[in-house]
Amino acid sequence: MTRSIREVMKEYMSERRIRKSRLVTKDGRCNIEFGTVMHKHQFAYILDIWTTFVESRWRFVVLHFVASFTLSWFTFGLVWYWMARNNGDLTWQNATEEHVPCVQNVKGMTTAFLYSLETQTTIGYGNRYITDVCPGAVALIIIQCLIGAIINCFWCGVVMTKIALPKKRAKTITFSECAVICPKKGTLCLQIRVANLRKTLMIGSQIYGKLLRTTVTPDGETVIMDQVSIDFTVDSGKDNLFFVCPLSLYHLIDKTSPFFEMGVDTLHQQEFELVVFLDGTAESTSSTCQVRTSYVPQEIMWGYDFLPIISRSKEGKYRVDFSNFAKVVAVPTAHCSYCYHNEAGHHHHSRNGIDNQTFVAIDMDRPNGTKM
Asked: Smallest Cα–Cα separation from 81: which of 92, 70, 69, 65?
């Protein structure tokens, strides 16, 4: 049965609201604005010109690349024109046949610009060349060659740095779209998946999380972005992950976990954002990179587990089935951590009830009597 337009629009507006309220988007970008920045702080972007260009978008880099070369050619063209004018080399100055110009065949602004371009790009067509009668022209050609080399080195560095940015390597590391909560390791666990799409390893990989939420201190102070550390582990531990295949990361929901007070009926009523970080060093480039993603309560599924994705063929090779990377299956799960550990707590079940999709009714015969 198809959904109505009203339901579709309601779902779209809900997703849009969640997307706007995120601090960290699913692809790792930070959704934050800086307002009322003082002018002296804005000037710091100019002082740190290298980082400013490296972090700029490609369209602005190409624009400044073209503008810097064109402006330098035109500026030195003006200087060559001024030098030719002072020496009487221009056409309208009617030089005698015995006159030796500073630069041969520079007789106007256009030819001065062309000579500037040929000099800085080391083309040298042969029609325009410098003579030895103007010492200032010799100094000028040295200065232009040095400045041209500096501009070339700067832009080559910017382009190569942008191409080799670590965040490009982070594009090949992906997290599962949702997180799940199910029994693992003798307790309830929040579980996510992460995969490295390249065969080259991430050396020294470490993963951790931050729970961002608004809290009120006992003194009545409201903390808008209170950060709580969330520890993640794998079967081999939490330090120096062997990131050769997709990993399942676990957060144990014990009494020290902020998820301990939550239940299946209150999880989606919470307002928080779980930001997950993975730090590592790329094996091929030795550059460190950080991969980020986030999960809001609507993206955490209680009572589900991920499907297995690693298998072994008859030839003894390990195989990763990425079609099951984000697929989940319902599993029997306690209503809350208090229920799982059979502890008394202040967590109350919802009066409206929660449907347990994994519940199976079993018919049992009542015994005729009871042995004493």
From this structure: 92
Strands (E), the chain: 173-175, 179-184, 187-196, 202-216, 222-231, 247-252, 272-282, 288-295, 300-302, 304-306, 310-312, 318-320, 328-330
Q: Report d(CA 270, CA 190) in Å as an integer.
A: 16
Pairing, β 187-196 against β 173-175? antiparallel
d(C-alpha 209, C-alpha 232), whole Å: 7
CA 164-169-172 angle, 5° bins: 150
- Distances in Å between the Cα of 198 and the Cα atoms of 201, 246, 292 are 8, 11, 17
Mean pLDDT by 10 residues, the chain (372 residues): 59 55 81 68 75 89 95 95 90 83 90 93 85 90 94 94 80 89 88 87 85 84 85 70 82 89 88 90 82 91 90 82 87 84 54 46 43 37
DSSP 41: H
